Predict the structure.
Amino acid sequence: MIVQIEESLGERALFDLIGEIEALGFEATQVVTQKQSYIVVTGKGTDDIRAIGHLKGVSDVHSVKDSYQLVSRAWKVKRTTIDLGDGVTIGDGKIAIMAGPCSIEGVDQVDEIASFLAENRVAIMRGGAFKPRSSPYSFQGMGQEGLQMFAEGARAQGLKIITEVLAPQQIESMLPFVDIFQVGARNTQNFTLLQELGKVDKPVLLKRGISGTLEELLQSAEYIFSSGNEKIILCERGIRTFEKAYRNTLDINAIPVLKDKSHLPVVVDPSHGIGIRKFVEPVALAGVVAGADGVLVEIHPVPEEAFSDAAQTLNFKEAQQLFTKIRGLESFNGQSA
Amino acid sequence: MIVQIEESLGERALFDLIGEIEALGFEATQVVTQKQSYIVVTGKGTDDIRAIGHLKGVSDVHSVKDSYQLVSRAWKVKRTTIDLGDGVTIGDGKIAIMAGPCSIEGVDQVDEIASFLAENRVAIMRGGAFKPRSSPYSFQGMGQEGLQMFAEGARAQGLKIITEVLAPQQIESMLPFVDIFQVGARNTQNFTLLQELGKVDKPVLLKRGISGTLEELLQSAEYIFSSGNEKIILCERGIRTFEKAYRNTLDINAIPVLKDKSHLPVVVDPSHGIGIRKFVEPVALAGVVAGADGVLVEIHPVPEEAFSDAAQTLNFKEAQQLFTKIRGLESFNGQSA
Amino acid sequence: MIVQIEESLGERALFDLIGEIEALGFEATQVVTQKQSYIVVTGKGTDDIRAIGHLKGVSDVHSVKDSYQLVSRAWKVKRTTIDLGDGVTIGDGKIAIMAGPCSIEGVDQVDEIASFLAENRVAIMRGGAFKPRSSPYSFQGMGQEGLQMFAEGARAQGLKIITEVLAPQQIESMLPFVDIFQVGARNTQNFTLLQELGKVDKPVLLKRGISGTLEELLQSAEYIFSSGNEKIILCERGIRTFEKAYRNTLDINAIPVLKDKSHLPVVVDPSHGIGIRKFVEPVALAGVVAGADGVLVEIHPVPEEAFSDAAQTLNFKEAQQLFTKIRGLESFNGQSA
Amino acid sequence: MIVQIEESLGERALFDLIGEIEALGFEATQVVTQKQSYIVVTGKGTDDIRAIGHLKGVSDVHSVKDSYQLVSRAWKVKRTTIDLGDGVTIGDGKIAIMAGPCSIEGVDQVDEIASFLAENRVAIMRGGAFKPRSSPYSFQGMGQEGLQMFAEGARAQGLKIITEVLAPQQIESMLPFVDIFQVGARNTQNFTLLQELGKVDKPVLLKRGISGTLEELLQSAEYIFSSGNEKIILCERGIRTFEKAYRNTLDINAIPVLKDKSHLPVVVDPSHGIGIRKFVEPVALAGVVAGADGVLVEIHPVPEEAFSDAAQTLNFKEAQQLFTKIRGLESFNGQSA
């Protein structure tokens, strides 16, 4: 159950309100985000909002029967839009394209890709500085130095950036350079990391776990929200199945279902989703038609020479064609909605 | 390796040719379909087409490195189109819509749906007369009587029909009434059934197994083709995963990958694919954008009262909206191709 | 709900009884097996046995809440034992070993293996005459001729045999030669085949589907039982997962859970279960400790030369060691039970 | 490729050796553990050990073709034994039992369980102080305070303890109290955490990811080893499948295969593995017979009242019976080996 609190409520009155709720036998968790204060009420009997609705200081109460609360669409009718500033948004009805290399490799690479994106009206650049790799002997990314290089190159072209964070201790030094923190599939249930990202006022793109259920993804998003950060983007990036013909199995079903369950924007990552270059376009477009608010795609001037993920990375020509088709579908979606 | 034979080649010369191929240490399987004769050559060393190419009676030789041969796109450049007569086709670039109830329930139901489809320019009606059910105590379909009722009602409206066959012994009596035989997910590897359908000159729609790989699906299609029937349609209908939020997980990736691996048309079944009525439309459209040649969808005048699959069946209004959007995407695909 | 009928009940009284049950709003299915007559009652309200218990001709009524009925342990306290004659049984507390080649290859092979088994006190020989193969160009088995050769060779050593049946039309000609019909993983939901095997008075070993749930396996077993055959053995043979280090993933959990849900005996197939020769022994023993009533294992005099499944087949020395350990565990189980 | 270095080699000579290896075109990673120094050599051409074997300072070279190196059995013939002191070991041929509650709940609970374990000659107690929970509103464990209480209660009975660590920043304060750090399934690929645990001289029990492959598990273990800690225990704890009859699917196959691939000890967690109390015993025993070096099992004086995992926790009587049977199998394994 979600209790919205009157804005004017003083600290003492809030303390009393929480006490009254607990006296009713519930557990009460106070959540303070960038936007509002809430009390999340859990325990038995939370189906009945009447017990709490009349308490002093309560502006509204919503019974949420999901195992997650604040990220549920059961209480928030309006969809969440993420505003990155300078007119760049995610979740406002247009398709946000986020494109760039798997790994940041050097200043020339960053500049070349950033220019390409700017020319093609793509506002958000992706790129990894800290790379999670299955083997300790694989290239682990250019680190903080790479991140700064990335941020400078992208900003010079007026682009926002999204990059992966691996551990709580990286957040502080990354903060000045990052527009969107990405949490990868291996860290979807790294709850300590999620809680720390809840204390930051920057958007977080949260990828579904490699075999994670939608419920788990939404519960992980709840960790971020309940720690104080409402700016969350969900990302479907393919699940692990028995099929050997592709790297992962992009789960198209997750897109409309997540949008039905949550008010958060949902984007699709076709590059990891299928993992084979020539099939990135059809599954990306499928994601858009299925309702995705954005597409996260790996591109590189010379994919064959990319430090990582070469097999699933588009070249510039392929990327341009994809962007054109996405924009075509955007207007198809608009007309048919 | 596929050996195409000169049309004029006599039976005796063909016999000699097979003998010569076997003398080279290969295994040779003669395949005679509605359209052509082939010799499929297997065994070690089939990468090298030179040994066979010069033999008398050989018109062409193709090295196919897949575990399936005749259904592979490695030897047949042109895509296969299924012609149902009366201008109804599948795989010719347009999106074939196949719609109808899960189960045939009676003459009124058939007539009502057939009229609706005719009015909405849908040329193929689906419907089950023999139903494979997990429990022996569930409704098993109206059987042969239901099939005849179905065929008559559909033909009265100028529609073609598709219906499921469960066992070899049903084929003969079904034959006069059926336009497309459907093989369900539970029978994808019922090789005896596939071989018998290979002896029939009617199209077969072959569904992917509930956890079948694409390679297995294509090998099963090879059973039909090599038994004599080239008229095969592949169907993605959702796989089993750990996700509990939907009945099956429609595997969108299968569509472009199957079209890359095989010359056969590929259709998508969003009804079983996701199994939840309100999400059938987005995944159906995703399938179309990903390259499907057709959509197989469950509709019913009053889905809540359907004998089976009620939870995933569209009503007429939802169906009309889906048809309109499919046709909109068809022209989008056409323009952007 | 399962209604057991008084043995003395005449045909007319039975007809009346079914009518009375249907008049109460239930569906009634009469089941006549080798052993007894039952009426399976389905529909809403079957939790309440009182409505039916007092009807004339009813000897006992059992409310079964599972989706399967006659194979459930909810009504039958005593475990089912399969009696093959000549003192050979499955499900009586001892571990039944069924061993032999994947494919029957010839008379010498049969004789050599049959002698080996007889010397090692293994009473049941397995071997495939009709082989279901993913590719139509793979070796499909020696067929009916191979089956007869197999049966003769085995009987000469006093062995019972188990062999796979692929289609209803094979049953009649196989019947004189077979002691146990095996239904493979690809046919677990070939309901037509199951129904036909229900009309035969020979035991059926039913393998779990490649990604089948336990509930589906038990529902498939219900098809056999409700068609008239109570002699059913369930078999866990590995499921499909994402793990690439083994062919299948033997699901050890299925063994105690199936024995908890059903009164039928449960055996384990470690050969297909893991698919790698050197690991067959540990998973076989694990199956025994977990409660399996028997082990179905592939052996061959020279596994490297086997026509099929070479990679998972034990040689005689390995087989002997396995038999010894199984018998050791048998007494461990006996002592600790 | 693994290069073992002469113990007497000075720092300067080591520096030169690494330079020589890199000059040959390889990448060289120096690894210093509690026990030895190694150079792990990666890159193309590492199949050929001759180029490096003769270099000054090299005592031995091993070509390892796996994607992991130091944890592979390809170079280390002798199995690794973990010595916890006071005669408590894992991996020496006996079955190590680690038992205790899911969550530490209070001093009485700890004392009661610790006494029970001591009386039953179980040397290692498990218990969670920091609990990773899917929902932020679930009980998150008693934290550092709970850990200290746990350690004191266990030590009073002469027991070693194992407990889960969730984040790098917890390690330092946990260190004085912990005998074995446990890394849970959600953190198997939390590489930052693994690297930090590589800097600690305490054993680490690493659980397989919820849908992790064995190769990924071994690569994760390689992170710990290559960061400096050789004391690693691998743990199979069930994978996610489509089967709904149990919480997870304990993968029995993983046990012999991991022991074949790695020299590290392997333990089994039947409690999470199947997740249902009455089936914990059979799958635990199956794990032992399949070759596990230990069993990690959840027990509680009153399982129904446990703060977490109540459904899969054994009571004392059930636990005693399990311990007895494990010890019975231990001697069976010993005799039959």
